[in-house]
Amino acid sequence: MINQQYSGSKGVYITSNLLGKGGEGEVYELADHPDQVLKLYSEPLSSSKANKLQLMVDRFSEQMQAYAAWPTDLVRDKKGKPCGFVMKKLHKYMPLHMLFSPMDRKRIFPDKGYNFLVHVARNISSAFHTLHSAGMVVGDVNEGNLLVNKQGMVAFIDCDSFQLSDGNNYFYCEVGVPRYTPPELLRLPSFENVVRTANTDAFSMAILIFQLLFLGRHPFAGINHTAEDIGEETAIQRQLFAYSLRQNHKLITPPKDSFDINSLPNSITDLFHDAFESVTRPMPAQWILATNQLLQQMSHCSRSKLHIFPNKLTQCPWCEFKTKRNILYFIDDLHSAQSAIHSDFDRFIHGFTVDPVYFPEPDLSIPVQPLATIQHGGRMKKYELQQTAISALLLLTAAFVFIISTTSGFLVLGLSVFFYMGFPWKWYLQAELKRHNENHQNLSNQLNRAVNSYQSTQDLDQYNQHGKRIIQLIAQYGEVPRTIQVKKRLEEERIYNQQLHHFLQQFRLQDHSIPGFGANRKQALYNAGIITASDLTKLGNIKVQGIGQKYEQMLLSWQRQMAGGFVYYPDNLQLNKAFLRIIDDAAQSKKQLEQEIRSQYNGLQQLKQHILAKRKQLQSQISAISLQVAQAQAELQSFKQLIKVI
């Protein structure tokens, strides 16, 4: 469950997102441990299982961690009971069988050739060698519990099924997939209490390596030359290696259009024969040596970068498959119609950036020129003479009255001041001062508005948004070639899956022996519309009673087994028609994008010129108004000095 806390000897763990669900339990991400995950079992753990997990935790090493999602801590629930374990999170890993199909390789490993398959085979050998050296036996080997990443590194999952011993007792691996099980174990009625060995692992490992080097083919599946019903399990039990060079009277031979075992060096073919036809099998160290040597013995085809092959061959086998039998084991698009949508416009948009618009801060300096002074008119001179005369008359009158009577003198002086303040020139001076103040304030406000308009970023924001739109369009324009490739791949996948669907329709579930599926389960599947191997894809959308996660995986494993005989024959006529249609659509899309980019670019240039012209006009206004403000300020100060005198 999400947001649940579990305790281990190495820390406390809180579950977050559910990553997967299987027959045994669920796997969660951990909130505070991004590089680890937690597996929780659905059923209570037996004491034996808990002891096995604790022993695995105790035997943890960095060497094993490099090749396996190894248990690092045993966790307990709130009641203190063991309920799961912590292991490392495998980032960007996928099941090994994704390398078997040419379409999966093209989709997930588009730049990888045959040498990459050899590289992965070498790493599988190293993984087994590391585990065996630590006293572990994998036991349940299959293409589903081994993952691989794009660097070719491999890692085992479901490590809790491994076999190990504490020195006194074995913790057995009691499960297994028949098509990866050696004959001596396959002949037993069950795997219960069966001791696996490095030698039994060696058989299973050799099958994985064979499937890699033979592009998904199984070594015990082929053309049956007898009247008997010889399936893979029977062929394994009777050691009927389909590609054998040592058997004179072969009952099974390789499928049509399969990779020739003679294309590989003797060091590799001898190991395959010893692994599949002998009791004592080659150990991982021998495979490491042989695959390392093979990696050094590779040739590169001059026609395709993906066509890499053993230098034992004088001709590229992948080109021969393509030209002689129309089979593509490595798909690199050389066979498809190519696009050439290029023009001078591509050079125009290469490295395109939006030119920044720069303009200086507004210039508020005043031109160096004399400012006009206030010219006092005749009215002002008249008021000045009147003020002087009346002031003298009032003072003389007050002085004369003071001589006669002090009290009367003060009365006359007060009346003189009252009349002086009420004379018309005072009203005029106050009105004139107000006019100067208002004129100065109005001009200052005009200047502030002009400066604010100059400094406004509204049109700059519009310019930048316009530029971002062009960059987005250019990104879409640049994505067109990749979109072509994606659509080509999807079209080819559609045809590939269509062929695979028809191929799998021939395998009816009722006609085949599938481990764990008796008449009742098959009937339940039949009733749900799942009749052939092709119908198994429906399991992702429907639920069939009695078919849980475990049985779904068994069915999908059987489906992959049946698909092992599928060979993809590309319909070049249909593909090229589809590819030409895709290219035509892309050309039209490019044309429309080019037109819009040109239109947007012209609009951007016009907007830039508008911004600069507007700033130039505003600067002229600012300079003119600044001069007017300075003039008004000078007049105001001059008038204030004047009225102090008057």
From TrEMBL:
A family per Pfam: Pkinase
The organism of origin for this protein: Pseudobacter ginsenosidimutans
PANTHER family to which the protein is assigned, alphabetical: SERINE/THREONINE-PROTEIN KINASE TNNI3K-RELATED
Its protein name is: DNA-binding helix-hairpin-helix protein with protein kinase domain
Question: Protein kinase domain: from which residue to which, for each copy?
Answer: 13-295
| Annotated Gene3D superfamilies | Transferase(Phosphotransferase) domain 1
Q: What's the superkingdom here?
A: Bacteria
Acyltransferase as a keyword of this entry, yes or no, is no
Q: Which residues cross the membrane?
A: 385-404
Coiled-coil regions, chain positions = 576-635
